[in-house]
Amino acid sequence: MNSIDEHIKKDQSEIQSAKAQGDQAKVRHLTDELHSLEEYKEHHPDDKHDPNALELFCDANPDEPECLVYDD
């Protein structure tokens, strides 16, 4: 994806498709991903890039060891 907005639209479309197919596991996965993307967008309104999984995780869990940044 080129932008977070494109990713959100893609997930919304795929959720509808998965619901039509009755794939509840995919619906849950995409719904969780969509929620994370929407939260990221809300926290970073000027950032238009498509965040990766680590960026989404760290946005929701900034105190986790994987997300801490140390200055030397």
How would you summarize the topology of this molecule?
Blueprint: H1 4-21, H2 24-43, H3 53-60
Helix pairs in contact: 1-2, 2-3
Features:
elongated, mainly alpha
Describe this structure in a few short sentences.
Helices cover 64% and strands 0% of the residues. By secondary structure, it is mainly α.
Plain-language structure description:
The protein has one domain (4-60). The chain is built from 3 helices and no strands. The chain has helices spanning 4-21, 24-43, 53-60. The longest helix is centred in the middle third of the chain and has 20 residues, at 24-43. The protein is elongated and about 50 Å long.
Topology as H/E string? Answer: HHH
> Largest sheet, described in full?
none
End-to-end separation in angstroms reads 34 Å
As residue ranges, the low-confidence spans are none
Beta content comes to under 5%
SS-based structural class? Answer: mainly alpha
Instruction: Give the number of domains.
Output: 1
The percent of residues in helical segments reads 55-70%
What's the pLDDT, averaged over the residues?
Answer: 94
| Large-scale geometry | elongated
Gyration radius, rounded: 14 Å
Tally the helices: what do you get?
Answer: 3
Q: How many strand units?
A: 0
